[in-house]
Amino acid sequence: MATDTKSKLEIVPLTKHVGAELRGVDLREPLDADTKAAIYQAWLDHLVIVFPDQKLEQEDLLKVTSYFGEIGAMRRPPKFFPAGFSKILPNIMLISNIRENGEAIGALPDGEMMFHHDMIHAEVPHNGTFLYSVEIPDHGGNTLFASGYAAYDTLDPAIRDRLEGRRALHHYDFGSVQKGDKAHVDAFAEASHPAFRTHEETKRKAIYVNRLMTVGVEGMAQEEAEPLLEAVFDHAEKPEFVYEHVWRVGDLLLWDNRCSSHARTDFPANQRRLMLRTTIQGTVKPF
Length: 287
Known about the structure:
Blueprint lengths: L1 E3 L4 E5 L6 E4 L9 H14 L1 E4 L6 H9 L26 E4 L2 E2 L2 E2 L8 E4 L11 E8 L7 E5 H6 L3 H7 L3 E12 L5 E11 L1 E3 L6 E3 L6 E4 L4 H15 L5 E4 L6 E5 L3 E5 L9 E7 L7
Parallel strand pairs: 3-4
Antiparallel strand pairs: 1-2, 2-3, 4-17, 5-19, 6-7, 8-18, 9-17, 9-19, 10-16, 10-18, 11-12, 11-15, 13-14
């Protein structure tokens, strides 16, 4: 546990490999340079940082996101907004199961999600993701975070050697998106990246494939790639590498997509869940 006496920032690790809660900071207030630097380093050290009990407006969320780099553009702006909720500002996405006129107001509305890295299907993936909880169900909808560093460091060498230096193919199907005010069109994206990514800031290697979006390995037959990838997925998702976050209203989380993957547990479909999401634009192609 470390404390910055000037800002009263307290950094409390949550598990051995991933996650830390940052206490004693109100993100509505201006932060001095030392505090910003300490928060940034905590993100690099712990992969996932939790700011509990925040009371943020949309402008506050964008300001905090900008501390970590350029704010990533949202590709799927919401069409509707909850009753009594102000219009969503640019580059903020709603993650919600709330429906108005029978249509979900946000993205990723229902159920569980397998482990994945945000924007791994882009040529330049986003470095990090913020998620701020506005409404949560009574139970479920937890987010699990897995350390790609710890999983890489402990991966069976026989598996690691067969994938070292190779690139994996990632595919994400959006289904359809609205084009202007007219018809919906099919939309998907795909990209290839190293199966093991070297983080450009920490210089550590992390597993950079996931169960949700990784579909193959370049230059390797599918019958050879599939069992290798399944073995990596199984290893990367072991409980000892995972922190499970049980959400509270006012939690703000930031995770590093370059070295961690995340998943979501199921939750009651008849209970409202509303999150605000921003991202940090990537600066380099993975290498």
